[in-house]
Amino acid sequence: MRTLSMPKNEMPSGALVLLILRVLRSGPLHGYAIAQRIHQLSSDALRVEEGSLYPALQKILLNGWVTANWGISETNRKVRFYKITRDGLKQLESEMTDYDRQTRAIQAILRTA
Amino acid sequence: MTRLLRRLHYLLNRRRLDNELAEEMEFHREMAAKSGGMPMGDALRLREDSREAWGWTWIDRLGQDLRYSFRMMRTSPGFSFAAVLVLGIGIGATVAAFSAFNMIVLRKLPIRDPDTILRFQRQGPKEFWSDVPYTHTVFYREHAKTLSTVLALTSARLVVEEDEKSPITYFVTSDFLSELGASARVGRIFTAADDGPQAPPVVVLGHGFWQSRFAGDPLVVGKTIHLNGKTATIIGVAAQEFSGLGADAPGFWAMIGQHPYFVHGSEITTDFTGQRNSGVVMWGRLCPGATAAGAETELATLAAQLRQAHPDDVWEGERLPSEPGGYAQNVGSTNRGSDRPPSLRTRLYPIFGLVGALVLLIFAVACGNLGSLLLARGAARQREMSIRVSVGAGAGRLIRQLFTESLVLAAMGSIVGLVLGSVVLRVILVWTDAPAWLDPSPDARVVFFALAVGCAAAIFFGLTPALHIAKQKARMTFGRTFLIGAQVASSCVLLIVAGLLIRAFDRVTSSSPGFEYQHVISIDPDLGSHGYSPARARTYIDDLRSRLLATPGVESVGVSSTPPLGGSRIMASVEVEGRQLDIYIHQVDASYLSTMKIPIVRGRDLAPGDTRSILVSESMARRRWPNEDALGKPFSTGSVDEDGKPIDFTVVGVAGSARSLALKDPEAVEMYRLVGENGFAGVTLLVRTAGAPETLTSVAMKAAKALDPEITPRVQLLKTLFRQNVRDVERSAFAVTALGVIALLVACLGIVGLVAYAVSQRTKEIGIRMALGAEPTHILTSLAHQFQRTVVVGLIVGVAGAAALSQALRRELYGLSTLDPVSYIAAVTLFIFVVGLAALLPARKALRVDPLTALRCD
Predict the structure, then answer these.
(1) CA distances (Å), B354 to each of B97, B351, B361, in order?
(2) B653 partner at 20 to 30 Å CA-CA among B227, B328, B340, B718?
(3) Minimal Cβ distance to B40: which of A51, A54, A59
(4) B310-322 pLDDT per residue, tens
């Protein structure tokens, strides 16, 4: 039973899955690019480490939300590109709706309480 | 579903996928390094975390553990062999017991649709009969709507040609065989046309009898055979795997409608009272859609209808309760009483309970032994464990590893146990002449049971040592000492009893039973069941006797109502000084003792007309009148004469002790009196021959037939009966000896484990003592001292237990003496010798300890 210490600016894996699926919606990306994109889009606020990115990607693959295909990177290296599937899009849709509802509910409480 | 498939895909391709993942993560690191980020953590570990998402890491770990376990087993083959053997014996015992339970209680009989066969019995307000008059079953068969047919069976022993053995014949309804799905091995089975008094008499042979009597000759079909002297045609042989619904394997199947033809005086087809030997076992086949409750209701109504025609023969409010008929536990057995007797099933449960307790004890001892062996080895592996802990193995991982080793042992033990168990059961079945259709081969239930017991064993013997070893501490517990003591005691009991049995067997075969059996033929005409009156029986016996005496080669002829080794016995009990004395009463004629060559020690033999005189055996004279002369003493057995007055007998002679009815009981006492005028319908003739008795059996048969062609007596050689009796002791002696040796073996392994453990614990101390110049014998003595008390206490308990057990066994086993010093001393000596050897083996290791190594160890 090993415990992995989690850096402070990491996020829970549920949210990570949501973010990965969201950045993949605009097109296939490889692992490092996914981490970069999340980092950039969050204005450097969120950092995705290998230690959480790859386990999350394995889980997503296993659920059939993305497929992985080998391609050539911008630096001319052989690398795996992840492409969102129809199931993945559906999952993203429902997770986003859930997330919206939850945040609205939380904000409602924060405002009124 | 697709998720499951994907997971399987990961399982099957996990090596390739792992490489791909590695490549991908390598790329990630390179990129991160280029952009100035710090790569974090150990690459291998990160990859393992990712792989965890696939959910298959446990397989890799299990694989590692298994590989390691097998490597450990290979490095110590002696230990592994001993462990698997001990476990195999323990599991084998439970498997054999469970298989027997499965075979008798759980499995259905190999018949067609066993679920819709019901057995019916008679229940009245005051009475219960497990048999039903055949005439009633005919009525139910004709009228029942819920039952598609009613089957009936009754059995009888018919004499075949002039054979010594009379196999059981099952008389059944004509559709009995076809309804139960029997097929013919050769020829055909019965059809409706075979039934009825007009049809030509036919029989179907049982498979076993066909094999033994006709050597499996297929040409026997179509031939005629004589049963009770009546001609019948053999039409076929039933298939071996057909069980029927009875407990025995019958020699013949015949038509119930022809019962009166074969059995003289049978009224089975006409009698409604059920009192004249006309009861049968009744089964019914449920119609599709009908229920057992429905059939019971209908039969109760039908019984009420039948009562209108036969008010005396059907009870008021008679019901016919049913029970499932398709199981081995519900076959056979008939009895009558005021109330319903407990079913065979409930009568079997205590037996299974007892056997179950015994095998669980063996199993527990085996597990305990293995536990101490493992613990001993664990102590030897302490260094290995500390190394593994120091390179980062957690306690959980270590326990898992050790437990996997136990599981591997348990799995192998299960396989050995399964094989051992079914072999043992098979041998038991052959020994007890069980019917061939009882199938002892393990089915899925038994295999599952063996594996489950193996897992339980792994938990029992493996978990505690694993916890101890992983925590790197181990203690000698009181429980373990107690276990060793208990093992010493139990194997000691078994060994002593085995010794007693072997000695008893030796005595039975080498010493005389008190009568001479080599040259005697017994002839049982069974006049009573052929409707002979006492007077007519007397004439028949006298005629037959004079005919036999006129035959060349016959020396003398005696008569007894309880012929030697015949199985039937008459007993009376008297109280002598507060203790009960059971007496075997022989009703004989005046020439019985001389025919059986039983000597007259004092006084005189019985003479014809001595109705108030008796002979007693020496053993009885000693017990009944200790320190007195038995001659002339009055004696009463409690029997009464015609006027109801108790008969007082006078002892006129003392005969040699002859255990002709109880070979097994060395303390049996006998009394002889003349058979009364009314007793002649039930006597057997005993013929002493000058030469080999075999030549005279057919002469004797012819002489009987000439007197009354309706009667075919059972003619048997006493020496055959004697041999059968001896074979039984031989087998029980062998079985107990085998058990004793196994128990000794198991106990030895336990002691090896214990001593090895103690030695490993005291290596340092031994090393120091050796370095200081201690004698090896001193060290051995101090080691032995540790176990002395346990072993001695175990031995004492064992000897006491053996004495108690032999008291109980005495009645059942021939000439078993309770205090036979030779058996006790031999068993205890053997035990101490073997145990000493077992202790010495690991102790020797201690003496070879290099003092330097010993001091260095921890």
Answers:
(1) 10, 5, 11
(2) B718
(3) A51
(4) 888 888 888 888 8
